[in-house]
Amino acid sequence: MKNQSAVSGLQPIRYKMTDTGTKEIQTPCYIIEEDALIRNLEILDCVQKEAGCKIIMALKGFAMFGVFPLIRQYLYGTAASSLDEARLGYEEFGGEVHICAPAYSEAEFSELLSYADHMVFNSFSQWKFFRKMAANSERKVLFGMRVNPEHSEVKVPIYDPCGRFSRLGTTRENFEEKELDGITGLHFHNLCELNADSLERTLKAVEEKFGSVFKRLKWINFGGGHHITRKDYDIALLCRLIRDFKNRYPLDVYLEPGEAIALNAGVLEASVLDVIHNRMDIAILDTSAAAHMPDVLEMPYRPVITGAGGPGEYGHTYRLGGMTCLAGDIIGDYSFRKPLKPGSRLVFEDMAHYTMVKNNTFNGVRLPSIAIRKSSGEVVIVRKFGYGDYKNRLS
Length: 395
Ligand SMILES: Cc1ncc(COP(=O)(O)O)c(C=O)c1O
Prior knowledge:
This protein is α/β, with parallel strands linked by helices. Helices cover 26% and strands 21% of the residues. It contains eleven helices and 16 strands. The strands form two sheets. Strands 1, 10, 11, 12, 13, 14, 15 and 16 form an eight-stranded mixed beta sheet that branches. Helix 1 (34-51) packs parallel to helix 7 (235-248) and helix 3 runs parallel beside helix 4. The longest helix has 18 residues, at 34-51. The protein starts with 28 loop residues before the first strand and ends with a helix. Mean pLDDT is 95; it is low at 1-14. The structure holds pyridoxal-5'-phosphate. The site of pyridoxal-5'-phosphate (PLP) has 15 residues, from helix 8. Pyridoxal-5'-phosphate (PLP) binds at residues 58, 60-61, 79, 100, 189, 192, 223-225, 256-260.
């Protein structure tokens, strides 16, 4: 059943490919590479088979439902962190829907139950509050508790779920073993773009703190942040860790990466609108760090641009800025072999994950279109945005 076309039923518009981008496509546009997605999914499938675990996709990282028909040929379901993500997973992906959020509201709880296969609570206070409603669920839902292993691996504080005073997960001190009736699994998540050695140290902390309750459980979710599809990721160690764990404890093991599914699986194509000078050359683009690639400012990080180098590396250096009025809407300083001019195309690499799911219409700047480059080479525009997408969010 594998390798069916990712986007069925859409009318392909044929675009000619060039070295410097997809000239005929109007920018800005995210272009997802079907072949790269398949490459990632094949790697993840190997892990599932080698390690004997199930992998689900965290929708917070990548939720382009136009390619769900491809992804569901490999993965078991979706990990949702809100009502709308849960509904998207349920309606568009199928398979298992796992929900985990820092807190649930009473108003949304019944609807959440109607989509869930696994539902993870962040605290025993929430579990005790919703326990009765949970027990009366018409749908068979497995309930779990998120634990905080109090072991940090992530260096950037806003991405570290185990930092000081973290609200994410129940610490051992607050873990109420006497309230475990009805709980069949545990969930932990403390990684971000990390390798298997980080999981090894985390697992040790989880086992030390919570190992005594494993005998009462059926499943455990190792969370996301596993950078499995990155070139230097130690897949052999990951598989060994999971197999060894399963030998010690007969639990179903889940992983819920987001980024690893869409890593290096798409670009953002943009154009230069103007070139100005204020002590240095500055190019203003038809995209924005603040609106279209917010992690560039939040993480922060410097995206790779195809064919460009660091400042001074090639003959023509520019500061690249976005089209919003935010002074800090700056993508970075880059150099190019040829001067930039209005109409020059730039291809920002690795722009599939944490972009579409996070972008916004600040300043009324229009969202980039979404396209897919199919294995056949055809580029299909899946979605274009307009005035309505901006206006409908405002009243
Ligand atoms: C609970 C949980 N699961 C999964 C993920 C996905 O992580 P990643 O996209 O880094 O793999 C996150 C990311 O923040 C998360 O908070």
